Amino acid sequence: MKTKSKQHNKWQHGVVAQIPRNSLIMLIAAFSMVILPHVAQISPWIIAAGIFCAWWRWMIFLGRRNFLTIWQKAALALACGAAVVISEGVTQNLETWAALLIMAFALKLLEMKTQRDAYVIVFIAYFVIATEFIFNHSMGIVFYELCALILVTAATVGMNQFHTRVKPLESVKIAGKILAQAVPLMIVLFVLFPRIGPIWSISSPNQQARSGLASEMTPGDIAKLALSDEIAFRAIFKNTPPSTNELYWRGRVYADFRNGKWSEADIPSKFNNIKKVDWVNNQKTEWFMPKINKTEGKKISYSILLEPTHDLWLIGMDLAVPKTPSTGVMWDYKLVNRQPVQSLLRYEVDTYPNATLNSWLPQFLRNQTTHIDTNDNPKTIAFAQNLYAESTNTEEFVEKILNQIRDQPYHYTLEPPKLEKENSIDQFWFETRQGFCSHYAGAMVYMLRAAGIPARMVGGYQGGEINPITGHIVVRQYLAHAWVEYWLPKKGWQRADPTAAVAPSRIHDSLSAALPENDLNSLSTFTNVRLNGLPGLQKMMFLFESLEHRWNVFIIGYDSKLQTDFLQKLLGKITTAKIAIILFLGALLSTIFVAISLLWSNRNTTQHPVIKTFQSFVSRLQKYGIERSPEETPAQFIEKICKQRRLDEQSYQPAINMLNNLLYNPDASYTQETLHTLKNNLQALQLKLS
Amino acid sequence: MEISPAAKLSQINTPQAETIDAIIGGVSKVLLGKDKQIRLALTCLFAGGHLLIEDLPGMGKTLLSHTLAQVLGLEFNRMQFTSDLLPSDVIGVSIFDKNTSEFRFMPGPVFAQVLLADEINRATPKSQSALLEVMEEQTVTVDGETHHLPKPFFVIATQNPATQTGTYPLPESQMDRFLMRIELGYPDQEAERMLLIEGDRRKKLEKLQAVISTEKLIAIQTEVEQVKVADTLLDYVQRLVEYTRKENVFAFGLSPRGSLSLLRAAKAWALIYQRNHVIPEDVQQVLPSVVEHRLRSSADFTGHGGISLAQKLLSGVDVLA
Fold this sequence. Notes:
The structure holds 2 protein chains of 2 kinds.
Chain A: H1 2-16, H2 21-35, H3 44-62, H4 70-88, H5 94-110, H6 115-135, H7 139-159, H8 168-192, E1 216-217, E2 231-237, E3 248-254, E4 256-258, E5 261-263, E6 277-279, E7 300-306, E8 313-314, E9 316-317, E10 320-322, E11 327-330, E12 335-337, E13 345-351, H9 363-370, H10 378-390, H11 394-407, E14 411-412, H12 424-432, E15 434-435, H13 437-450, E16 455-462, E17 465-466, E18 473-476, E19 480-488, E20 492-496, H14 498-502, H15 504-508, H16 511-514, H17 517-521, H18 525-532, H19 535-556, H20 560-571, H21 576-601, H22 609-621, H23 634-644, H24 649-664, H25 672-689
Parallel strand pairs in A: 14-15
Antiparallel strand pairs in A: 1-5, 2-7, 2-18, 3-9, 3-16, 4-5, 6-11, 7-13, 8-12, 10-13, 11-12, 16-19, 17-18, 19-20
Helix pairs in contact in A: 2-3, 2-6, 2-7, 3-5, 4-5, 5-6, 6-7, 7-8, 8-21, 10-11, 10-13, 12-13, 22-25, 23-24, 24-25
Chain B: H1 5-9, H2 17-30, H3 35-46, E1 50-54, H4 61-71, E2 76-80, H5 87-91, E3 92-97, E4 102-107, E5 114-118, H6 125-137, E6 139-142, E7 145-148, E8 154-159, H7 172-175, E9 178-182, H8 189-198, H9 202-207, H10 214-225, H11 231-246, H12 256-272, H13 280-291, H14 307-316
Parallel strand pairs in B: 1-8, 1-9, 2-5, 5-8
Antiparallel strand pairs in B: 3-4, 6-7
Helix pairs in contact in B: 2-4, 3-12, 10-12, 11-12, 12-13, 13-14
């Protein structure tokens, strides 16, 4: 008995607060849409579990599954929490928390029963949308989340719709309108609201950079170099950019070679008093920086918009001197940032191409860049030493190595045969003779070192495509490159590119020209289109790319510095009071703007002059306490007045007839004269009333 | 709502004015004190639509329909709908003729200019739909042979309120086929007195002469088509229809057929008041009869309680915008 009455109450409660069907569908759709982009940062199984929960909730709606009991829910929540911890690990990373949030969101959806639950889902959905922007704020994702925002809002609208008037499209429209009204205020807040630094520190994501430059490189292990058309960075040059074959973007420096593996080298720990970085705004010039003002020659100024690398290194052309605070130059001339680059980073660089890098070489650096394991690759060492003996100087030796590559059957390919760990360079140089940039660069550095010349491998990007619409240079991951740096006394580090010897077109023409047909076929369609052609599609890609670039520059690039500049221009000296006032004014203005546009869209659009005349007559009568209710026709209105004020109806009959005739008889056309008569008639009536 | 004097004054004498007056006079002689209902019923027939009369038993529904048919001089059949009525009882049946050794079609009662379908909601939906199909198509198809109905063809149906026992409510789709639904209501004191003095009205019915011919009726129907409508009035009609589709008090909006019906009825009403153009008063007068059976309140799950809705609709929409 007891359970029965309980059931009864529950049922009644359910009827009152039931979630309308259309809104339920929209909520489930919005849920799936909102969690989907998180697949980029959390384990896909969590997203899959979320979609499963959505499906389950849908099945509950269809009556094929049941809501879970409280014990099932508790067990499921514990299991899911444990699963998240196991798959994501116990970390401080935001990704872990996002995973937990999504998991909880999915479980909440599963127990969504009443309207109250649905509102909770709506609020969490808004929150999850905001969460996505921590990880990604590209134009595409903003557009996507905007659609999600409309869908979530539409679900809320749907919940307040009458259940017999189910109009999903209508609620989407209303949601769009609601959000559109918020746009002016959003712009004001975006432009004016002070950028507050993060309150908590965000630990670096645990994910490795998916593509780009790794801290280690083992050419022998790579059987197939995947070409990604993801953007690495964009560069905006103040003046005309150098031609693409001069664009050697320095990324990382690999000076250490062991067992077929190239890796970055640090200053030995016993020299820990040596300064490693020359930071911007550092008063002192560090030991490795040349005297810039004395270097003759040109200066190239540009800014870089670097896509997230989740690492410290930055991109620049030698010799790159950054100008943005919190960046600096390292002792091996690569650029660094103080924090890992987690989101799009914009920084300014001056490049002095003629500057000398390390006009003198410290002993530790000489040791580091001449070190080879003499047991490894004996044939190459012997070959290099022979070649060096035949040469008169280092330059000639370098030229001889390059000639060797040019004259002998060496091939440039993205799918080289695998190499052994030991004697890998011997194997490459004398047997396989097939490889990509790092094979050649590695072999060349090894030979230079064998001859006692300081040399190292530099990893970065070579080239770039100019977007014809905005004129900036785009560098994609497939332009990643490795080349050789060797040191000459007084002249410092010199660049040599063996890839230019084996495949000159890679540097002077394009990547696709350098690749054998076999390799080209294995590229992705997008990459192929980018590299080769289909002019129409290419143009569209350029257009989209330029849009994305502008988005990066104007929206994402609008940081606290730009904001401060803008506010200073606007206000002079910035004070808290001034910011408060300008925020208030901005909010007020945007609200007024919305109000005006609403009034404008609801304005009376009747153009009929007779209706206008009559309406103004009606509004003039308001001061005599006479109101017209909407359903009253002009005739009924005048008759009502006559009855109320005991006026002779018959004498106003001509006015009534005239009104009716002008308004509703298609045969009667009004002229200025008739309008005038009508006005006089109405005025006469008004006079009677006063 | 009273008929505005303004409506009377902007009269223009239309060709059929006298005929119309005569018809109204004829019907009024039999049905006392129901001037507005008679005009509405005539409006419906002049607009070429089918009429549904709904009221309690004994209110004069059948009398009104009889009188109308007689005054208009139309050939008519009367059918009493019951729960055991079959479709073939309505539309007719093919029977085997011994003399000719062939099947012969025996036309049912629908083959008349006016069909009085009495207590239509007492029949089962099966038989109802047989009739309603005829109403829409104006043809009868039996054994693959199509038979055309005479012209003009009207169905005047009467029904008891759906709350009465032994009724099968007409579905919305079938209600929609009736141009208008009117209710008679109790007679006023004066009319009731007359009724008590003079006794059964049916005796009067027998003496009633046809006032017009079929050709004249068709002429009036053509004239209804020619009643003019100004843009300002079309705006008003559109606002009304839009309101039913937008506001939440209505479970669903008026269909395009509904809006067409409203305008057609308003035109006929204007003609009855001898005007060659429609004024908003015309729309307001016919609106309850045209829309009430097509609308349903969102709060009403049971049936066709659209009475207050028509008032809501009228007071919610500005005549002038």
